[in-house]
Fold:
Amino acid sequence: MKLVFLADSLVLQRAGIKKYNLQLLETVSLYPTLESLHIIVPRHEENLGKYDQVVVPIGKFPGHQRIRQFSAIPKVVESLKPDLVIEPAHFGPFRLSKAIKRCTVIHDLTPITHSNLHPGGSVWSHQILLKSVLKKSNLVLTNSYATKESILNYYPATSSIQVLYPEITKPLAASTSRSHSDHPSDNYILAIGTLEPRKDYATLIRAFEKIESNYHLVIIGGVGWKHSAVDQYIEKSPKKEKIHIKGYISENEKLNLISGASLFVSTSIAEGLGLPLLEVMPYNLPIVCSDIAPYREIGGDDFTFTKVGDVQSLASAIEKSINQSCTTNFNNQISTWNKDRVTQIEELFTTFDQWQ
Structure:
């Protein structure tokens, strides 16, 4: 099989979607009868050096990243004569001959289901383009059964849809030394995610203010859209000296912060999956999180769930978790999750076999 992977997200993204798509690229590169694999990138990326990169640059004028998906990229793809093209970030592949199979990855439908939590451009793009993408895809690949259900509710005519979980791993940090700059306190609560409305950091901050302890709150994540409300909550918080926004940091710094945390909290209103939960599980931190479908899919009954937006319930759950000395162990859940992923890969490769 000759495969083309549209890899803008591997160069331009920094959040969880990039991590998932890197794993996906590595997975499809292991397909037993793969004849060739080209990745289409906006610029050459050293970290992707082991792959055959084909550069389709983004121009300086606004909107060109999207425009080239309909013009320059299809021309380049057709010249490579692939059997299959994978678009790992919702939009595409576009304008390909019918002989080429199309696989589109959908990470979540929150721009549709929770449009008030997203910037207008993202909402508009999904509303205009997504049903056409789903209709034309030979296979829709998604990261959770929760997202699969959302897609089928939105567009029941989706012809073929499969789930592929990301693998849960425990990377080793280059250093386990603790510094004041990395760890603001011996006792801190950790959250991971872009500062944007879906993460509902306002609820987390308000709950943190109610906790009677000397704990600090550390948030790892860059500034996203509609973040001004969060900024205001932090600035006005009586505990603002104990709230630490780390922004985007190195993988090593993140692993050190995870390993030193006392508790992990996620207050998301809506997600497709929730990669930060998978990242912290191998460190066996107690996890307190919103009661949403993808989090239930990950944690079953082993996380502490609270109602979305319920400040008092969240504060009580956090206090209970940090006051208890019980040991958390997710090893069985991780093993089951990764075994399910092996089965999902086999199903994906069987689909590839059928296309040859």
Notes: Residues 2-164 form a domain with the Rossmann fold fold (CATH 3.40.50.2000). The chain has two domains: 2-164, 188-330. DSSP finds 14 helices and 13 strands in the chain. The radius of gyration is 21 Å.
